[in-house]
Amino acid sequence: MKQEIKGGPLTRLIMNDVAGRRMMMIILAIAIIVPFCNLVFPEGSALHVSTYTMTLLGKYLCYALLAVSVDLIWGYCGILSLGHGAFFALGGYAMGMYLMRQIGDRGVYANPDLPDFMVFLNWTEVPWYWFGFDQFWFAMVMVLAVPGILAFVFGALAFRSRVTGVYLSIITQALTYALMLAFFRNDMGFGGNNGLTDFKDILGFDLQADSTRAALFFASGIALILGYLISRFIVTSKLGRVLVAIRDSESRARFLGYRVEWYKLFVFVVSAMLAGVAGALYVPQVGIINPGEFAPINSIEMIIWVAVGGRGTLFGAVIGAVLVNYAKTYFTGAFAELWLFMLGGLFVLTTLYLPKGVVGLWAQMKDKFMSSGGGGNSGITTGSSSGKSSDQKTSKEAEGNA
Amino acid sequence: MSLAKTKHIEQPTVLYMDGVSVSFDGFKALNSLSLFIEPGEMRAIIGPNGAGKTTMMDVITGKTRPDEGRILFNDELDLTRYDEAQVANMGVGRKFQKPSVIESLTVFENLEMSLKGGRSVWQALTHKLTGAKQDKIDEILSMIDLKDRLYEDAGSLSHGQKQWLEIGMLLGQEPELLLIDEPAAGMTDEETMKTAELFKELSKKHSLMVVEHDMDFIEALDCRVTVLHEGSVLAEGSLANVKNNQQVIEVYLGR
Amino acid sequence: MLFAFVLYTVVVAGAEASPMKPNTALHAVAQELIDAGYREKQAVTERLTTIDDPKTLLFMQIMVEGDLYYRKDDRVVVIKGDDAVTTFFSGEEVTLESKRDIKKISVNNKLRVLLRSGIARLQIFSDDPEMRMQAAVNLLKSAEDLDQTTLEEALDKEENSDVRDVLLLVKGIRMLEADTEKERLQGVSYLSGSLYPDVRGALANYRRAAEADSRTEEIQAADEALKKIESLLSLNSVAENLYFGLALGAVLLLAAIGLAITFGVMGVINMAHGEMIMLGAYTTYVVQQLMPDHIGMSLAVAVPAAFLVSGLVGVAIERGVIRHLYGRPLETLLATFGISLVLQQAVRSIFSPLNREVATPDWMAGTFMINPALELTFNRLYIIIFSLMVLALLALILKRTLFGLQMRAVTMNRPMASSMGIRTGWVDALTFGLGSGIAGIAGVALSQLTNVGPNMGQAYIIDSFMVVVFGGVGNLWGTLVGAMSLGVVNKLLEPWAGAVVAKILVLIFIILFIQKRPRGLFALKGRAADMG
């Protein structure tokens, strides 16, 4: 039995979301403690967190934010985007361009006006679309605007013509594929194959310095928390319920008078922007952005993070992203051959046996455990209660509309 | 709009279909269908399978665009120019044959979503449940008898309850015209009679168009009946009249 | 040098049956050449060109190449090949103690001219029209090899119109050097519209000369002739791109046909479809490893083998995974993507991550000539034919067999089909197997065109989906038209935009097209589609 959602937006956001609240507290704690341990305790101390570990965890935080953005559209609105990697990469490129401009004359060719790869290509001036990227604020606007505008244009076209279900998935995949091909070209002016790298500093702070890394890590944690809260605000509003209605029965939502395309467009754009922010935080931490980020496989991999965590819960996406990526780090290091088998198996097993992910599994086990004690509130308000039946419905609808 | 001037009849209508045709790959689902419903009228539509009943609803509600013909709503707006959401917001509610409620939302949330107004994205994002809205939901709840299941997922309701919830959602929209597709399908006799009573009650405030196979149900509705056949009107009149129509008998029994 | 040797081996091989005795006339001339100085050689060579002997031509050809030697101790004439020395008359291989054992029968430029024109004359009057053709084409390069009277004689005698046409071109090229303007213009008119690169070169030279002497009328004539050639050439390049486009379309068609079944008919999104193609390609590789001596036959074996391998894997996937996910296309998409990762890694673990070499049988190699400036490769032609055959076969299976009937019944109305006694589960499995098997066949064809590696399937999956979606789901005809038009558009854009941009443009075009017509080119409309 679900509880009625009462109270103002703040209550709605925080008080009614036990699991999410706990998770955000943990992330906040991590965002503070990890940099603290890295900076304060000397190397060799038991409490020291190495910069390598911190960077790795920072990557996970970015992935987690990306997963939240995927869950927002897939878990709540039923849009399976296979092109979210593109938004992530575009945000990353926007940040990368800023970092590139910050290099100044410290590049290999020591050209004060042109990034190295442009000198290499014998270009004489920076192309027009690079203008402004020497300003941090401008780059930050672009981090949001570029993915947002692409999502808006693409979404406006696709949703208005009612491209849904697998068709939408396939053309989003085609979109990221086309972008990958484009960014691989040297003529595009984004560094071609090699992408953007050799960054020196951000806002004047040395990117190699532990303190800068720590700050970036903290920023990633805060971004994740904010992204989660924004998403949570959306899905707990009436808009969120309209999204669920669209997911479960698009035509019902239409006949109730909701302009489905605008709702989809809104959430698609918000999601793309969140993904862009995740990309922008990711790039300075890993130190490179290249067209490989547009690869279709990346976009599909993020879907599995959400699926493993449990779609339609937001915090499940966070758990899934961290779990899968930790496993990836571990296995690609220890048994490289095994990793793709595992990842592949994960796709199959999750879809077959874990439709609600580990969050659903946890809730199930908890229910079983507490069934003698009268059930009670598990604190997990999964957007979907009857995952299977509603999914079937969504898919039938998708076929019909397709 | 001046369209109303070209109407072939004088009296005011809530729905006026004029020469509407739709074909799919050569198959004429609607064949120059003309039909009108007066304000406050309840109309039952019957017809054998493939007579075009569902297509007619699709055309009225903006799901399917007709090849020709026009559909006037309240003698002024041509519904064929609008999409589903626009038609719904003008005041045409539709209930599907298969109960279609949002299964993973609660009964309350389903009703809240259906309430008139606040259809824009921004309004939805900043929506607040006011006292007036709460009252409206309470009012609907008392009509559809789902008060004690308010916070349960709609997916957990029985078939009949889902039908009722969907009707409740229609009422939340406060439409002028209700299009209802086979409401009695899958209901027990008792539920069927209760539904007929509800519709009669509704017809005091709304215009209704009910597609139904169940003759007992139609008899209980006690209203004018239109028989559709091969995409156009075959006969119209009281149920008794229609039942004795030779053509209708042929269509129903002839094959 | 090599040419001469090959030529020699061919001729000798033909005559091997009867051991050759040195032929008197030719042999005598050869002996004279050994002793003669350059001055005498001229006269001897002139005599050589008139000797009526089947080996005279070969003798001259080897001589002009500078590969004709003699053994010092017994004055036997030998040919020095790249890695062997053989006697000219008996064709026996000779072992040499030292390089100094043999001496070259040297030629100078004057002799070369003599020899060439002798060769040309011999060839141009040969009985073999193919040899005459070859000679005529060679003359385009060096029209001066044949004197005017011989050329006219050859033109008079020539009965084969193709050879005659080329000879006329030779005449035209010679006439460009003529003394009077009238004759030169006549020559230009012979050459106008010919696609031989040598003709174009000659005309360009002629124009340059005319410009140097500012002979305006002739410049104009040359320009017109060149323009005509240019326009024909650009037509040629369009035709070539069209051919490439159709070949690419055929590849896309092969890759997409299987998908047209699994996605189009069954509505199953199989992201592992590319890996079914890959399995087919690897099957070809394995088959070739098993029968290394019969590469020519290997493809004939590989086609059914690949069908079975990919088909069986397909059936296993359907029974093991997809069966549990019917009605949930997005989940199917994810699960099959997982399978694609597993299959890729499996192949990587078994065969190594490197590309495997798949041999092309001889009958697939080679080109055929459309006109002198356009040669097309056979392998593309075979792929086009093969893809159409596969499509036709599939259409036949769907339309004419009991299985096809059951398949359509199941997709149209599952409960009804089931109640009529059709084992819907098995029909599903076999349908999926059929689609996968055809992907395997596509892999055999693709192994002849591209690298065979663990990632090869990935390259085709997006394209295949684009073809099916563009053509209209559930419609084989749409798949054909979709594949061919995408292939052709891609290749026609390529020279203008570059390969990558062409591909991007095609992708963008499809993305926009889907907005306009979400059901593709040849869509089922209305009710039937709603229900499907």
From TrEMBL, chain A:
Compartments where found: Cell inner membrane
Q: Where are the transmembrane segments?
A: 21-41, 47-66, 73-95, 136-159, 166-184, 214-235, 262-283, 303-326, 338-363
Q: Where is the composition biased (Basic and acidic residues)?
A: 390-402
Please note every region of biased composition (Low complexity): 379-389
Q: Keyword Nucleus, does the record have it? A: no
Q: Where is this region: Disordered?
A: 374-402
Record's InterPro entries?
Answer: ABC_transp_permease (IPR001851), ABC_transptr_urea_perm_UrtC (IPR017778), LivM-like (IPR043428)
Q: Which GO terms describe its cellular component?
A: plasma membrane
Q: Cite the entry's keywords alphabetically.
A: Cell membrane, Membrane, Transmembrane, Transmembrane helix
Lineage: superkingdom: Bacteria
Membrane topology type: Multi-pass membrane protein
Q: Name one GO molecular function term.
A: branched-chain amino acid transmembrane transporter activity
- Please name the Pfam families in this protein's record: BPD_transp_2
Listed NCBIfam families: urea_trans_UrtC
Q: What is this protein called?
A: Amino acid/amide ABC transporter membrane protein 2, HAAT family
UniProtKB/TrEMBL annotation, chain B:
The GO terms this record gives for MF are: ATP binding; ATP hydrolysis activity
Presence of the UniProt keyword Transport in the record: yes
Q: Does the keyword Nucleotide-binding apply?
A: yes
For this record, an example GO cellular component is: plasma membrane
Q: Which UniProt keywords apply?
A: ATP-binding, Nucleotide-binding, Transport
Where are its TM segments located?
A: none
Q: Which ranges carry the ABC transporter domain? A: 15-255
Q: SMART domains of this UniProt entry?
A: AAA
PANTHER family with a match to the protein in the record: CONSERVED COMPONENT OF ABC TRANSPORTER FOR NATURAL AMINO ACIDS-RELATED, HIGH-AFFINITY BRANCHED-CHAIN AMINO ACID TRANSPORT ATP-BINDING PROTEIN
| Cited NCBIfam families | urea_trans_UrtD (TIGR03411)
Give the protein's recorded name.
Urea transport system ATP-binding protein
From TrEMBL, chain C:
Q: Per its UniProt record, what CDD domains does this chain match?
A: TM_PBP1_LivH_like
Which residue ranges run through the membrane? 242-269, 297-317, 381-398, 465-489, 495-514
What's one GO BP annotation on this UniProt entry? amino acid transport
Q: Look up and give the membrane topology term.
A: Multi-pass membrane protein
Example GO molecular function: transmembrane transporter activity
Q: What does the UniProt entry say about where the protein is found? A: Cell inner membrane
InterPro entries named in the record: ABC_transp_permease, ABC_UrtB_bac, BCAA_transport_permease
Question: Which terms are listed as keywords in the entry?
Answer: Amino-acid transport, Cell membrane, Membrane, Transmembrane, Transmembrane helix, Transport
Q: What is its main location?
A: membrane
In the UniProt record, which is one GO cellular component term? plasma membrane
Question: What's this protein's family per the entry?
Answer: Belongs to the binding-protein-dependent transport system permease family. LivHM subfamily.
- Name assigned to this protein: Amino acid/amide ABC transporter membrane protein 1, HAAT family
Source organism per UniProt = Thalassolituus maritimus
